[in-house]
Amino acid sequence: MAKYFDVHPDNPQPRTILQVAESIRQDALVAYPTDSCYALGCRLGSRDGMERIRSIRQLDDRHHFTLVCQDFAQLGQFVRVDKDVFRAVKASTPGSYTFILPATKEVPRMLQHPKKKTVGVRIPDHVVTQALLAELGEPLLSSTLLLPGEDEPMTQGWEIKDRLDHVLDAVVDSGDCGTEPTTVIDFSGGEAEIVRRGAGDTTRFE
């Protein structure tokens, strides 16, 4: 049964954020809000969490997981970014974008695309997510909370708890955060390739 954390959207309660972070450190799988939609998240090195996300979403091993980072400095520890890509990514963060880039050795092999050795990264523009990342001190291993056969992610914390109570350890609710997932841009080949059009404006990548 998932714990339910009611978090203020503009002024997240430090004690509650600490409780969520502690549960993640202990290998909890949580549903949490972002600036695009709800996501599933777990500790960076959690094989169990990663497999549980795969199971919930019915994903294969070619799926790009995302490292949700607090800031650009943290993002730079986990992916290689050349000068041209740096400018494009920097100009779009924080925001509703996920970038696929070559992984550094800091990224566990199990999280990398099996052939491309890439990983997704993003910096969310969301007060609650940022507070949680600051408390954790490392990225969250994440994937959009989009269930198999459904076109849109769930947007309400209470609904997520009701439907996924048996497969999650915690739900963080700070109100509605929208239905559009991030825009995904693949820079692994050097040029911007739009993989998914979502909440982020694609104009600068076309």
TrEMBL record:
Q: What is this protein called?
A: L-threonylcarbamoyladenylate synthase
By its UniProt entry, which InterPro entries does this protein fall under?
DHBP_synth_RibB-like_a/b_dom (IPR017945), Sua5-like_dom (IPR006070), SUA5_domain (IPR052532)
Decide whether keyword Transferase is in the record.
yes
- PANTHER family from the entry? DHBP SYNTHASE RIBB-LIKE ALPHA/BETA DOMAIN-CONTAINING PROTEIN, THREONYLCARBAMOYL-AMP SYNTHASE
Q: What is its EC number?
A: 2.7.7.87
Provenance organism: Streptomyces griseosporeus
Q: Which Gene3D superfamilies match?
A: DHBP synthase
- Start and end residues of each YrdC-like domain: 14-200
* The keyword Transferase appears for this protein: yes
Q: Which UniProt keywords apply?
A: Nucleotidyltransferase, Transferase
This entry's Gene Ontology molecular function terms read: L-threonylcarbamoyladenylate synthase
